[in-house]
Amino acid sequence: MHRLFPAFALALLGLAANPILAQAEAPEWLTDTEKSEIVFVATQSGAPVEGRFKAFEADIRFDPAAPEAGRAEVLIEIASVDSGATDRDQAITSEGLLNAGAFPQGRFVAERFRHLEGDSYEAEGTLTLRDVTLPVVLPFTLAIDGDTAQAKGELRVQRLDYGVGQGQWADTSMVGPEVAIRIDILARRPN
User: What is the pTM for the complete model shown?
Assistant: First the structure.
């Protein structure tokens, strides 16, 4: 198991206003990477294309009773992309798109969590792709059963804002400008 949590995501929790108290108060969660996933959905020539990142890890500390004390950092290995087609995976990791050679990891850091209502939360933080860091808000639901938690959420980004689209890949008629990043994270409190 890797340390993980919602994500690009998913991906996620940041330091609260008092980082010393935040680290002391919020419990750690370990992600079950076999039962978790970070998925993206883009459009290619108008048709949806789905893929996932098979390798990621996260440092997650979260308490639903005090979400403001939580923090998370998720690191995604760009070269672990799997879209179901080798040639498409090579294009995704090429210099024109995510450029895994120069920028091997994507990073989500949650700096603030908010409880909205019921099982709905928001993680406010930053997403870094191709060395471009921008603010994002990841809405997610959280279900906790004993020492097991499942978080599901979706974040939409404009790929060109991150420089994901150089040369021929800047043409949004070939690959659409918006990409959805979905997380489905299963995590457990350590014994």
Answer: 0.85
